[in-house]
């Protein structure tokens, strides 16, 4: 199987859902599709399209830059924190390698985090609790008060 979905988080958890994806190109549209399917019942007040775009960027980066000598996966989790939505993408890469770039106009890559920086209310990168790297974004006021 190329992915697993956790659609029934415990009721005492802030986590609304999670998915584990293999580091292959097909995982990017799969992440968007499954996120939309499982976040829909929560009636977001923010732009679902923006969230899907940011997830696409982070999953793409995780696939491109995640590194491990062993078989590895990309993990996506989404949480409700009061009225905010936080999405985390975990991979086995190195946290020090996550940075905003200022690519030249002719460069084909390097704009993903700039995009996230412009859409999300905030974003963060650092060591993942699963080992490797986590990059997350926060959308404030994702739900009405």
Automatic annotation (TrEMBL):
InterPro entries noted in UniProt: Anti-sigma-factor_SerPK, HATPase_C_sf, HATPase_dom
Domain annotation Histidine kinase/HSP90-like ATPase: ranges: 25-135
Keyword presence, Lipid biosynthesis: no
Signal sequence extent: none
Any one Pfam family match given in the protein's UniProt record, by short name: HATPase_c_2
Gene3D superfamilies: Histidine kinase-like ATPase, C-terminal domain
A single GO molecular function term of this UniProt record: protein serine/threonine kinase activity
Keyword RNA-binding in record: no
Superkingdom in the source lineage: Bacteria
Keywords recorded for this protein, A-Z: ATP-binding, Kinase, Nucleotide-binding, Serine/threonine-protein kinase, Transferase
PANTHER family: ANTI-SIGMA-F FACTOR RSBW, ANTI-SIGMA-F FACTOR RSBW-RELATED
Annotated protein name in UniProt: ATP-binding protein
Lineage, uppermost ranks: Bacteria, Bacillati, Actinomycetota, Actinomycetes, Kitasatosporales
């Amino acid at each position: 199987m190329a992915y697993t979905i956790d659609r029934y988080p415990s009721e005492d958890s802030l986590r609304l859902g999670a998915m584990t994806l293999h580091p292959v190109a097909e995982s990017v549209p799969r992440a968007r599709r499954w996120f939309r399917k499982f976040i829909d019942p929560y009636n977001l007040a923010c732009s679902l399209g923006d969230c899907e775009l940011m997830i696409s960027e982070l999953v793409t980066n995780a696939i491109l830059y995640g590194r491990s000598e062993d078989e590895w996966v990309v993990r996506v989790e989404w949480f409700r924190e009061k009225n905010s939505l936080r999405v985390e993408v975990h991979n086995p890469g190195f946290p020090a390698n996550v940075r905003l770039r200022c690519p030249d106009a002719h460069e084909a890559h390097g704009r993903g985090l700039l995009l996230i920086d412009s859409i999300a209310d905030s974003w963060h990168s650092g060591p993942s609790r699963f080992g490797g790297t986590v990059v997350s974004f926060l959308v404030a006021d994702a739900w009405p008060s």
